[in-house]
């Protein structure tokens, strides 16, 4: 810290500065600018014009914000994919989904820019415009009072000037009359009557002059009093009022300046969250998962074409009796069959493929895609079947309540709904078995086997306990909807039994871990088949993610379940 030039007198300097500040604070327009009416008039007018200019500036700023927000919304709308288009179907890839997240964040960002414009218009433009009108009226009133005081003083001054001129004129006349009377009195030829008349005229003029003098003195006293009142009381009071008005204007304008910044600062946290969302969208992109998703979506499951056989025409071998290795692979519904290619021609990777005929069992799709579509169809039917089974159980309970309490309702009124639900269950069960057999034929993956077995047991349980209008039970139906004789085994039950055996064998054999994973986030594991997980917990990986976003893990105590792949860091054993 630098030492002042004269440290000994520093406190004295501070006292002097303090006194100067006090004097500065005591300064006012009425005292120090008593003779600067025109300056005060121009200054206050300039201040009001500045408020108008600032309001106009903020309005233009709000227009810019609104146009910016509108352009942002139009931009996000332009790049948002339409429903059913190809881009929407590609949203399963993280880089496409992240781009959609960025568009959503920018749309929210545009909303915040609109909020800035709205708040600036309401809190600055409208408020200052209203306050400006009040200031204009107040200034007009003060200037009108000053003008009236000025006119009153000028009127008094005119009266003073008139009495002064009259006094001056009458005093000259009285002086002339006195000189004439003295001259007449000394004239030897003047008669006594002339002398008396001249003396009377002089006395009269002198008396009038004295009255004018007194009137002039009174007018002068009046004017001096009014002038003192004008310069020391009336005008200082008006000037101080104008000063107070101008200081309030400056203070209000300063608040408007602060609001200009605060309005945007208040939405900065939300804008920051929007930008954080954009950053998060970028970090959520996982190139490996996108590649796996593409494989899962378009993997055909076909084997690569084998070598072509050598056709020796020198030995007289008929070309038609020979076939390419593609025709001898023995793979059912290979790429050539599905695409309608000539088996005698090689399969070209970049050739243009014709659109195959769609079939109910998805046989027109490659094996891998067929399994996925059948699995998806089977899951949808399973959900509908579970819904119908639950509805049937509810109807049966309601019917039982009606039978025990007839006053609550007629049990017979529920028969149509029960019959319709029974038919729906049998129809869905038939479809379920049909797609189940097709999936078995295609060689399904057993990750949803347990849930389908549960649905099957519920459907079978419902079928054996559903009632018709007379309260009798329905006979069991076969998958095609026909009645099956008692003791005749259902073909679908054999399929389910086979799956049950496979699942029991899978439970008996404990799969060896293929790696480890560390939890990056907490996972509650509330859904069936999932397992809870705490951040930092180390688990054994039993089954890799098959493209559906779930990984099967095992704890040290033997508990197994599925967790989201994106919630863990996986390290597989080599």
Topology:
Blueprint: H1 10-26, H2 29-32, H3 37-79, H4 86-89, H5 94-186, H6 192-283, H7 287-298, H8 335-339, H9 367-404, H10 415-442, H11 449-465, H12 491-508, E1 515-519, E2 538-543, E3 550-554, E4 560-564, E5 568-572
Antiparallel strand pairs: 1-2, 1-5, 2-3, 3-4
Helix pairs in contact: 3-5, 3-6, 5-6, 9-10, 9-11, 10-11, 11-12
Just name the CATH architecture of the domain at 26-287: Up-down Bundle
Gap between N and C termini, in Å? 68 Å
User: Residue-averaged pLDDT, rounded?
Assistant: 78
Per the CATH scheme, the topology name of the domain at 26-287 is Substrate Binding Domain Of Dnak, Chain:A, Domain 2
**Strand sequence of the main sheet, in spatial order?**
4-3-2-1-5
Shape annotation: rod-shaped
Largest sheet: 5 strands, antiparallel
- Helix content range: 55-70%
- Rg from alpha-carbon coordinates: 53 Å
Number of strands: 5
GO cellular component, one term: cell cortex
Region (Disordered): 462-493
Keywords: Cell membrane, Coiled coil, Cytoplasm, Cytoskeleton, Endocytosis, Lipid-binding, Lysosome, Membrane, SH3 domain
Coiled coil: 132-201
How would you portray this structure in words?
The protein has 574 residues and is mainly alpha-helical. Among the domains are: 262 residues, Up-down Bundle (Substrate Binding Domain Of Dnak, Chain:A, Domain 2), CATH 1.20.1270; 78 residues, Orthogonal Bundle (Helix Hairpins), CATH 1.10.287; 58 residues, Roll (SH3 type barrels). It contains twelve helices and five strands. Helix 3 packs parallel to helix 6 and helix 5 runs antiparallel to helix 6. The radius of gyration is 53 Å and the shape is rod-shaped. The chain starts with 9 loop residues before the first helix and ends with a strand.
């Amino acid at each position: 810290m630098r030492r002042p030039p004269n440290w000994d007198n520093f406190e004295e300097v501070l006292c002097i500065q303090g006194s100067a500040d006090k004097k500065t604070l005591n300064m006012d327009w009425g005292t120090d600018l008593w003779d600067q009416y025109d300056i005060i008039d121009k200054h206050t007018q300039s201040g009001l014009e500045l408020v108008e200019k600032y309001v106009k500036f903020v309005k233009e700023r709000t227009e810019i914000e609104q146009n910016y927000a509108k352009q942002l919304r139009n931009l996000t709308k332009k790049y948002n994919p339409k429903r059913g288009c190809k881009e929407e179907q590609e949203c399963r890839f993280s880089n496409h989904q992240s781009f959609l997240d960025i568009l959503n964040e920018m749309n929210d960002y545009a909303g915040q820019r609109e909020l800035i414009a709205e708040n600036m218009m309401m809190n600055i433009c409208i408020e200052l415009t209203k306050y400006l009108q009040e200031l204009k009226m107040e200034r007009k009133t003060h200037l009108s009072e000053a003008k009236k005081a000025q006119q009153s003083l000028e009127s008094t001054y005119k009266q003073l000037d008139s009495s002064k001129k009259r006094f001056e004129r009458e005093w000259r006349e009285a002086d002339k009359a006195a000189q004439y009377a003295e001259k007449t009195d000394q004239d030897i030829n003047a008669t006594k009557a002339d002398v008396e008349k001249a003396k009377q005229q002089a006395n009269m003029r002198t008396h009038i002059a004295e009255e004018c003098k007194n009137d002039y003195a009174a007018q002068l006293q009046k004017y001096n009093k009014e002038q003192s009142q004008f310069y020391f009381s009336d005008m200082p009071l008006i000037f101080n009022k104008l000063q107070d008005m101008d200081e309030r204007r400056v203070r209000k304008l300063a608040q408007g300046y602060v609001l200009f910044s605060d309005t945007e600062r208040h939405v900065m946290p939300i804008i920051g969250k929007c930008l954080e969302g954009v950053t998060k969208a970028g970090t959520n992109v996982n190139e490996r998962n996108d590649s796996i998703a593409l494989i899962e979506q378009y993997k055909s499951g076909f084997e690569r074409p084998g070598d072509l056989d050598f056709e020796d025409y020198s030995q007289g071998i008929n070309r038609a009796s020979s076939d390419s290795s593609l025709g001898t692979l023995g793979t059912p519904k290979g790429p050539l069959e599905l695409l309608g290619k000539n088996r005698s021609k090689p399969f070209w990777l970049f050739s243009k493929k014709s659109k195959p005929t769609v079939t109910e069992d998805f046989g027109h799709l490659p094996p891998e895609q067929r399994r996925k579509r059948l699995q998806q169809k089977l899951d949808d039917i399973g959900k509908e079947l579970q819904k119908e089974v639950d509805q049937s159980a509810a109807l049966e309970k309601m019917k039982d309540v009606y039978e025990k309490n007839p006053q609550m309702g007629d049990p017979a009124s529920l028969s149509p709904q029960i019959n319709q639900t029974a038919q729906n269950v049998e129809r869905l069960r038939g479809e379920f078995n049909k797609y189940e057999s097709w999936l078995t034929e295609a060689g399904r993956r057993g990750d949803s086997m347990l849930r389908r077995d549960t649905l099957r047991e519920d459907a079978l349980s419902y079928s054996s306990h559903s009632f018709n209008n007379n309260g009798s039970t329905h006979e069991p139906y076969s998958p095609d909807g026909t009645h099956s004789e008692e003791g005749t085994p259902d073909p679908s039950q054999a399929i389910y039994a086979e799956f049950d055996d496979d699942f029991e064998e899978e439970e008996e054999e404990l799969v060896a871990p293929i790696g480890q994973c560390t939890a990056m986030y907490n996972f509650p594991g509330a859904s069936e088949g999932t397992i809870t997980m705490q951040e930092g917990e180390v688990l054994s990986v039993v089954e890799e993610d098959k493209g559906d976003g779930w990984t099967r893990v095992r704890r040290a105590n033997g508990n197994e379940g599925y967790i989201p792949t994106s919630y863990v860091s996986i390290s597989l054993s080599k």
